[in-house]
């Protein structure tokens, strides 16, 4: 799919709809800063007529900057879903922990505190994110363009949620992630952001500062504990984080 002078948001929205990839991004189409990239994210959902079904957030270190993206409700799947491999290129899989809040956070001019946000965590569960890109050259693509592309989001498979347990070992939970029965975790399981709950206050204030209400229905997934696995065939990925219900997705 060749790039034109169309706005980046239209190009990305059309590519998502058509399961297509874009040629190399001309410099004049790349977002100029993070705020421009975040604006493109919301334009993509508006063009697609999709509601925000959740958010993905993450950081590359336990004290590093946080980034995120709204997730279209149409790309959220239940545990055990079957999805076509051809809809995602590339196709990476990550096992994550996600949260739901027990209250809504309305837009406000006063930032919400960490105490407010953490007190509102209602439930949590395991998710499998399908990572994908609308850029043929991924991962050698402008970082802000990747952020605009819903932070390389393809789809989210959501397991059963449990009531929030503050004592859960969020930094280093025991887990297993396999594909067709083969363990695909090559490193010691860990979230690069450290305790993923530290990301939640940023998300609430990021969304509400842009006029978006964060609701209890939204699933907030918080980054991979397993790195990214790229399956080379059809099959079933199964994730189990000890203390949480398992989650699986079948690719065909």
Give me the count of strands: 13
- Please name the CATH architecture: Alpha-Beta Complex
Kindly report the average pLDDT value: 95
The CATH fourth-level homologous superfamily: Fumarylacetoacetase-like, C-terminal domain
> What distance lies between the first and last C-alpha atoms, to the nearest angstrom?
24 Å
Roughly how many Å is the radius of gyration?
17 Å
CATH fold type: Fumarylacetoacetate hydrolase, domain 2
How many domains would you count in the coordinates? Answer: 1
Order of helices and strands: HHEEEEEHEHEEEEHEEE
Oligomer: single chain
Beta-strand proportion:
25-35%
Instruction: Just give the CATH class.
Output: Alpha Beta
Structural class: alpha+beta
Uncertain regions: pLDDT < 50 for 5+ in a row? none
Q: Could you describe the largest sheet, including whether it forms a barrel?
A: 8 strands, mixed
Number of helices: 5
Helix content: 10-25%
Summarize the structure in words:
The protein is of the alpha+beta class. It has one domain: Alpha-Beta Complex (Fumarylacetoacetate hydrolase, domain 2), CATH 3.90.850.10. Helix content is 19%, strand content 30%. It contains 5 helices and 13 strands. The strands form 2 sheets. Strands 1, 2, 3, 5, 6, 7, 8 and 11 form an 8-stranded mixed sheet that branches. A hairpin with a 6-residue loop joins strand 1 (52-59) and strand 2 (66-72). Helix 1 (8-18) packs across helix 2. The longest helix is centred in the N-terminal third of the chain and has 15 residues, at 34-48. The two termini are 24 Å apart.
């Amino acid at each position: 799919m060749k790039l034109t002078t169309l706005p980046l948001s239209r190009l990305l929205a059309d590519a998502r709809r058509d399961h297509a990839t874009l040629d190399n991004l001309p410099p004049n189409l790349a977002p100029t800063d993070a705020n421009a990239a975040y604006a493109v994210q919301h334009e993509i959902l508006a063009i697609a007529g999709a509601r925000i079904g959740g958010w993905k957030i993450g950081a590359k270190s336990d004290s590093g900057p946080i980034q995120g993206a709204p997730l279209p409700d149409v790309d959220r799947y239940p545990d055990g879903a079957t999805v076509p491999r051809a809809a995602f290129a590339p196709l990476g899989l990550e096992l994550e922990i996600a949260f739901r809040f027990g209250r809504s956070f309305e837009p406000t001019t006063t930032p919400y505190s960490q105490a407010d946000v953490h007190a509102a965590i209602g439930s949590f569960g395991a998710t499998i994110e399908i990572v994908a890109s609308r850029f043929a050259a991924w991962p050698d693509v402008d970082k802000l363009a990747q952020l605009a592309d819903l932070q390389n989001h393809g789809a989210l498979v959501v397991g059963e949620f449990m009531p929030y347990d503050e004592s859960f070992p969020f930094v280093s939970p025991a887990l297993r992630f396999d594909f067709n029965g083969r363990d695909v975790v090559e490193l010691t399981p860990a979230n690069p952001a450290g305790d993923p709950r530290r990301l939640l206050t940023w998300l609430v204030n990021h969304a509400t500062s842009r006029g978006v209400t964060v609701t209890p229905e939204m699933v907030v997934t918080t980054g991979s504990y397993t790195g990214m696995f790229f399956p080379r065939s059809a099959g079933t990925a199964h994730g189990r984080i000890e203390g949480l219900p398992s989650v699986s997705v079948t690719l065909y």
